């Protein structure tokens, strides 16, 4: 499975940005697709996720009400729509794909990450 993120960049406080992650490989619709972010010196933080076949959409409390996520109709794409952004949203955003069986990770893949900077 390969994951390619796009849409990052510089945005002013209060602005909006959409990240896109395109997944390629066999059986993508069976994977959980997730967004995580990381700032220097900090652990990677889970942001949002969409379950297999587009079910079970969840967003972290830290961004709830500002960020939404969705999967494309082909199930191969996950979007992260970010609004009312603040400097705390600055970081490298990673796309992640997990295939789980019985609650255990069977396979996990990561994108290379894309930089998002919120600054005036």
Describe this entry's structure for a reader.
By secondary structure, the chain is mostly beta strands. The protein has strands at about 1-5, 10, 15-25, 30-40, 45-50, 55-60, 65-70, 75-80, 90-100, 105-110, 115-120. Strands 2, 4, 5, 6, 9, 10 and 11 form a 7-stranded mixed β-sheet that branches. The chain has a 4-stranded antiparallel β-sheet with strand order 1-3-8-7, with no helix packed on it.
Oligomer status: single chain
* Radius of gyration, CA atoms, in whole angstroms: 14 Å
Q: What is the overall number of helices? A: 0
Helical content stands at: under 10%
Beta-strand level of the residues, as a percent range?
A: over 45%
The major β-sheet equals: 7 strands, mixed
Mean pLDDT, to the nearest integer, reads: 95
List the uncertain runs.
Answer: none
- N-to-C span: 37 Å
Number of β-strand runs: 11
The gross shape turns out to be: globular
Structural class: mainly beta
Give helix and strand order, one letter per element, not per position: EEEEEEEEEEE
Topology:
Blueprint: E1 2-6, E2 9-11, E3 17-24, E4 32-38, E5 45-50, E6 57-59, E7 67-71, E8 77-82, E9 91-101, E10 104-110, E11 114-118
Parallel strand pairs: 2-11
Antiparallel strand pairs: 1-3, 3-8, 4-5, 4-9, 5-6, 7-8, 9-10, 9-11
Quick structural gist:
With 120 residues, the protein is mainly beta. It has strands at 2-6, 9-11, 17-24, 32-38, 45-50, 57-59, 67-71, 77-82, 91-101, 104-110, 114-118. It is built from no helices and eleven strands.
Key structural traits:
55% strand, single chain, 7-stranded mixed β-sheet, 4-stranded antiparallel β-sheet, 11 strands, mainly beta
